[in-house]
């Protein structure tokens, strides 16, 4: 088995990927992470193409992201990813985003579960995947702490799951949940703050046409979000965002 290498890809930050202040949107950042993770997993022989032949799928269970600053329009960033740890049912994959000088501006950790796609049940990694290696180096040390329930409802926001929110696994794409969470924060607050830290715990699948409710609590510079389906009350995700003042 050949030695595994970190996967590296450069991305020019385009205007349509940025917010009103020219900074990369969170949804775009999550989609970039998904892109490099998919590409590296396929390169390793255990990505989407392999899973399709075995009736398997990778599903994200957690993200923890630390942000020094968000990239800006016209920058070219380097995104580096690698699998760094294996747990009983989950695999940990980390990310590092560097600016044009090689300085890290974002670090992240993610946890992925391998499931039997038809049964929607977790399966063991080593029993179902080709041999693979990990690189025991962390970009961000985290245990993916359990996120608390909001204790009060500062705001309640509803969204309808759009056709374009659905991904190749036929459920709401992971990147949509932090978008819903940040959209539920008062625009006046967001005009003065940017994300510094983001934690996401994915719980259940969201589906096309459903209406979802986001309960949001603001604790000084932290927003807590509980995202549920209105039809049956099932919890889809929890999100915690730590904000910092815009410079």
Folded structure, characterized:
The chain is of the alpha+beta class and 247 residues long. The protein is 16% helix and 39% strand. The chain contains four helices and eleven strands; from the N terminus they run E-H-H-E-E-E-E-E-E-H-H-E-E-E-E. Strands 1, 2, 3, 4, 5, 6, 7, 8, 9, 10 and 11 form an eleven-stranded antiparallel beta sheet that branches. The longest helix has 18 residues, at 26-43. The radius of gyration is 18 Å and the shape is globular.
How many separate domains?
2
Shape, per Cα inertia axes: globular
Give the name of the CATH superfamily of the largest domain: Hotdog Thioesterase
Query: How much helical structure, as a percent, in the residues?
Result: 10-25%
What is the level 1 CATH name of the largest domain?
Alpha Beta
Identify the quaternary structure here: single chain
Helices and strands, with pairings:
Elements (H helix, E strand, L loop, with lengths): L6 E6 L13 H18 L4 H7 L1 E12 L8 E11 L3 E9 L5 E13 L4 E2 L32 E6 L15 H8 L3 H6 E10 L8 E9 L2 E8 L5 E11 L2
Antiparallel strand pairs: 1-3, 2-5, 2-8, 3-4, 4-5, 5-6, 7-9, 8-11, 9-10, 10-11
GO molecular function, one term: acyl carrier activity
Pfam families: Acyl-ACP_TE, Acyl-ACP_TE_C
Protein name: Acyl-ACP thioesterase
């Amino acid at each position: 088995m050949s030695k595994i290498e970190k996967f590296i890809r450069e991305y020019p930050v385009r205007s349509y990927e940025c917010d009103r202040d020219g900074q990369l949107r969170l949804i775009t950042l999550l989609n970039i992470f998904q892109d490099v993770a998919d590409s590296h997993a396929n390169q390793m022989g255990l990505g989407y193409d392999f899973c399709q032949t075995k009736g398997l799928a990778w599903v994200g269970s957690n993200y923890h992201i630390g942000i020094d600053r968000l990239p800006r329009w016209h920058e070219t960033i380097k995104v580096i990813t690698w699998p760094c740890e294996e747990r009983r049912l989950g695999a940990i994959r980390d990310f590092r985003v560097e600016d044009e000088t090689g300085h890290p501006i974002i670090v992240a950790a993610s946890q992925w579960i391998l499931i039997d796609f038809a049964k929607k049940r977790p399966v063991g990694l080593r029993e179902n995947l080709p041999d693979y290696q990990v690189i025991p180096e962390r970009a961000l040390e985290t245990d993916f702490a359990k996120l608390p329930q909001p204790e009060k409802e500062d705001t309640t926001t509803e969204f309808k799951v759009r056709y374009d929110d659905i991904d190749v696994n036929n459920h709401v794409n992971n990147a949509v949940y932090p978008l819903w969470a940040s959209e539920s924060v008062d625009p006046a607050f967001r005009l003065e703050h940017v994300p510094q830290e983001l934690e996401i715990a994915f719980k259940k699948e969201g589906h096309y046409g459903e209406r979802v409710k986001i309960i949001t609590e603001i604790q000084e510079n932290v927003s807590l979000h509980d995202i549920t389906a209105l039809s049956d009350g099932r919890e889809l995700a929890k999100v915690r965002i730590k904000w910092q003042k815009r410079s």
